[in-house]
Specification:
Length: 187
């Protein structure tokens, strides 16, 4: 028995290292449509999501691509919160399939735990907002013009399974959905 444990422990450690290495490299191996390319990316620790970005240092404009697994009936969102690491107060980009069949993406502010999810302006300029659906993933693209003095931000990301009357429904309030937040350093 002891010899089996001595054999299994290094093997288990090697397997965990291999799985971690595979996941750590997955966003860097992703190929976007139209040959879009991003110099930086991070696989986010929850909901199978990833954030890709390029930064123009002279203007502090950040081109982002947020992608997450999703079905045709669901929605995804990603945003920044300068006030703290929570959903409320976040400046968000959301994407889902509209009732007319088109994939829509737009900015919105999350001002409460029951936000309207209506399109609206953010506290910073955002442009070129679009989305695409490829290989069972929704991808949100946008250009953010962030304050020059800031490089580190709280960010949140989310996914929900329903859209009703062209409004994203409530996401689950347990598991990975409540853990999907962190910090991002744009450099």
């Amino acid at each position: 028995m002891a010899s089996q444990i001595k054999f299994l422990l290094p093997l288990s450690t090697l397997a965990i290292f291999f799985l971690y290495s595979t996941n750590a490299q997955s966003c860097s191996n992703y190929t976007f449509s139209d040959n879009k390319a991003y110099s930086s990316c991070t696989d986010l620790p929850h909901l199978g999501a990833a954030l890709h970005y390029n930064q123009a240092t002279s203007s502090n404009a950040i081109d982002i691509a947020f992608r997450a697994p999703q079905s045709h009936s669901g929605w995804v969102a990603w945003g920044l919160n300068s006030k703290g690491p929570s959903m409320v107060g976040s400046q968000v980009l959301v994407a889902f399939f509209h009732s007319n069949g088109s994939l829509v993406a737009y900015p919105t502010q999350l001002d409460s735990y029951s936000p309207s999810m209506a399109p609206g302006d953010l506290t910073f300029p955002v442009s070129h907002v679009s989305a695409e659906y490829i290989n069972k993933e929704m991808i949100i693209y946008a250009t953010l013009s962030l304050p020059k003095a800031e490089t580190k931000f709280n960010h949140v990301w989310q996914a929900g399974s329903t859209v009703a009357s062209d409004v994203p429904g409530v996401h689950p309030t347990s598991g990975e959905n409540i853990l999907s937040k962190g910090t991002v350093q744009f450099q």
